[in-house]
Every structure is written in structure tokens, then in C-alpha cells.
Write a structure and sequence with these properties.
About 50% of the residues lie in helices and about 15% in strands. The protein has about 250 residues and is α+β, with helices and mostly antiparallel strands. Helix 9 packs across helix 10 and helix 11 packs parallel to helix 13.
């Protein structure tokens, strides 16, 4: 019995994850068989987070996991196999709801505070914001996105800071690159407080500590990193701390 689009949408909800097997390469991307029999495809822009040549595409016969983006009129599943997007789907509680509320908040009139509040109440708000500010969402306006982060309730801002700081400690360069803007948007006092907690709970390696210190531009953050490093029993970490810039004697505290 042939499945209708409604059947496919019910079986494979948007932003759910599925297993698929690559069956062919085309100029526009990959042809795949979803969970053994369902027809599907992956547009070339959804194969990798960074542009790759066809030589780096998954081979025919290779099994992959994908995020469902929707069902076409001719009954094929559109999939996304990018690692970052799979990680988001795996960590989310209800990604479809969070994405829907994000779209509503993004397109709402400035005076429509209700759309923002509904977005902030999603279980995945902080996770989605952390993903978006790293530039993972296509076409997301960064200026309004940072405003959305800055206006979020304190618990959301804390969670965003914790999520991105943890990812930075794990070596995620995209997370490292946005830490300065993130800490400023979320408030320096709140951000440095969360940072100090993270340094105790999930301390970075000396190599990643040096990467963080080089990337962030705000002295209160560097001060926190240096203080923690200089109190570490690890000589290599203390060596990194000694190389961090110190606040000059003429500077006031923040």
C-alpha cells in the first residue's frame, strides 16, 4: 500500500532523526533510502557544515543518520546529515516546538513581546540560542538574535552561557569565537559567575585554556581564567595563566 504524504509526516515528524543508506550521488546532493525503503534525498548544502567536494561525500552504500526537514510533494523525505544539526536534534526535548516558536519570534513585530515570551518558555530555548549564535541557523539575523539573547530571562541566559562555555571547553571553535559577544549580551557579572562555576565543575585542558584566553577580549573574563589557572595544581595550566594579560594598576574593577 502506497504511503501518502500525511502518512510519511506522521511516521517521520519534522526534526526527528532517522537512519538512511546512500544509494546514489547527484549534482544536487545524495539520494538515500530511509530506514530500508523510504525514498529520500540530502541537498548538497545539508551534507556538511562546511563546503566539501563530492570526493568527501558519504559513499554509496554508507549508512548515516539524518534529521528530517520535511516531505516533498512527490513523497520523498528531505534530510540533513550535518553533524552539528544532528547534535542539536539529539540534545533537544522538542526541537519542532522550539523551531516553531523561534520562527514566530523572529518574524514578529517589535511591539509583539508575546512571541518572544512564548519562545523563552520552550524547553529548548537555551540550546537553540546557543546553536543559532554560532551561525548554524541559515539566514538568522545576528543583530536581532543577540538582542533576543540579551533580553532573555536570567535562567535562559545562564543556560546559554553554560552551554556555550562547556562547548568551548570541549574544543568547539565556533563556541570559542562567540564567547566575547555572548558574555557581553548576557551581562558580564552573570557570565563570569557561570564561567567560574564551569572552571571548577568541568575544567579545560591547558591547551584549550590558552585558546580561550586568546579569543576573549574582556578583562573580567581573562581575570577569572587567570585566577583559576594560577590556583591550579597543574604546572602546565599555571604556565598558561602566567602568560595571560593582567589588569593594569590604573584600571578600576568591574
Amino acid at each position: 500500500m502506497m504511503q501518502t504524504n500525511g502518512d510519511l509526516q506522521e511516521r517521520f515528524p519534522r526534526y526527528s532523526t532517522v537512519n538512511c543508506t546512500v544509494t546514489a550521488h547527484r549534482s544536487y546532493g545524495l539520494i538515500v533510502a530511509v530506514e530500508g525503503d523510504g525514498p529520500g534525498f540530502v541537498d548538497l548544502g545539508y551534507i556538511s557544515q562546511i563546503p566539501v567536494t563530492t570526493d568527501a561525500w558519504p559513499r554509496v552504500g554508507e549508512e548515516r543518520r539524518g534529521v528530517v526537514l520535511g516531505v516533498t510533494n512527490d513523497g520523498r523525505l528531505r534530510l540533513d546529515i550535518r553533524d552539528d544539526d544532528l547534535a542539536l536534534a539529539d540534545r533537544a526535548v522538542n526541537l519542532a516546538e522550539a523551531m516553531s516558536r523561534w520562527s514566530e519570534a523572529r518574524h514578529a513585530e517589535p511591539a509583539d513581546t508575546g512571541a518572544r515570551q512564548r519562545f523563552y518558555q520552550s524547553a529548548d530555548t537555551a540550546l537553540l540560542l546557543a546553536w543559532l549564535v554560532r551561525g548554524k541557523g541559515r539566514g538568522s539575523p545576528m543583530e536581532s538574535l543577540w538582542a533576543l539573547v540579551g533580553d532573555a530571562p536570567e535562567d535562559v541566559r545562564r543556560s546559554v552561557v553554560a552551554t556555550l562555555t562547556q562547548d568551548a571547553f570541549s574544543g568547539d571553535q565556533d563556541a570559542v569565537d562567540v564567547l566575547t559577544a555572548l558574555y557581553r549580551a548576557c551581562g558580564m557579572a552573570l557570565s563570569t559567575e557561570v564561567l567560574r562555576q564551569m572552571l571548577i565543575q568541568q575544567p579545560p585542558s591547558a591547551e584549550r585554556l590558552a585558546m580561550l584566553a586568546q579569543a576573549v577580549a574582556d578583562q573580567p573574563v581573562i581575570d577569572s581564567l587567570r585566577t583559576w589557572a594560577m590556583n591550579s595544581p597543574d604546572q602546565e595550566i599555571r604556565n598558561v595563566g602566567e602568560r595571560m594579560p593582567q589588569r593594569s594598576s590604573g584600571e578600576g574593577g568591574q
